[in-house]
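Look at one record.

>
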Amino acid sequence: MPGLVVRPRERAEVAPLVRLCHALGVPLSPRGAGTGTVGGCLADHGGVVLDLGGLRSIVDIDERSMLAIVEPGVLTGELHRAVEARGLFYPPDPASLKICSVGGNVATNAGGPRACKYGVTGNFVLGLDVVDGTGVSHEVGHRSIKGVTGYNLAGLLVGSEGTLGLITRCVLRLIPRPPFAVTLLASFADEAAACDAVHRCLTGGVAPAALELADRTCTELLARSGTLAVELPPGRALLWVELDGDGAGLDRALLRAADLCREAGALAVTQATDAATRDALWDVRRALSHTLRAHWPKKISEDVAVPLARLPDLAAAAREIGARHRVDVASFGHAGDGNLHVNFLYDPRPAATSANASTAASPTCSPPPSPSAAPSPANTASASASAPTCR
């Protein structure tokens, strides 16, 4: 637990607090909406938690320049609704978009299903207002779409998780809102066939906005839950394919995507063209993590990204690790950019199962040779050479 939690309501309150903590040597941990799964918002050194959730103003939506200026506590879903009401589009869509904050998305460089076509949060950050560790405020980046002069300091801060500065305002790039979107749900006999469909869709000329995969554990769970708005097709792997664009071209792309899935061995292809069914399908995909937790009291989650050609290997390796350590494994996620969430699932009551899960999720490392003395800055290279070898 932290010693103190401070929740500023105005940006001007942030820098004086940081200066005070710096002067007194008090640890300071910034916090967004607290939805992250890697513990970045926790005060693991005690001290002060600076909760930026109170800075929730959408300062400006500049339609002519196609950018938004927002404070870090703005919820991502709120930003989506605000810009879409103006005919604009902010693509990053992490699964927790209804409850996560823009500042946290920037700090973690969050992705989401639409990263397949549009990229992650960092692709839409033009500029940032930040307070560094000594309490000095800086404006980095730019408001123009192109900005290549000097160091890319805004890019450096994206994904730094509060270690280089506290974000107090974000300048974000917007694009025109696609007028139409459709979703396919295809089922396959196994994950390898679904991965083949991913490759075919990416190279087959349909430009999918999202390609999301769920393995057999997820598919069986969904079949039992009965939560899908459409009848779940038979199979042991599922693939969501979303396409967006203009109406005429989208119809052709939809037919082409369905054919590509069938060429990869799809057992069934369901089309969702109305907004209500599409939303229901995506709500199920976004709820997968919570649904798994409801059926297995504990899970150890890993976020793994590989080159697209290795996607089938990743799915197979996760299942083999689970079998070897006798724990259930569920893999799902953003197959369109080679990113799967690998979950080792267990019930903590049997001690052996819990130990197996921890072992399965940990890398196997060979310890480095014992150094004769602590490395100095001058021999960093030799210190790196003796680092543990992990596989």
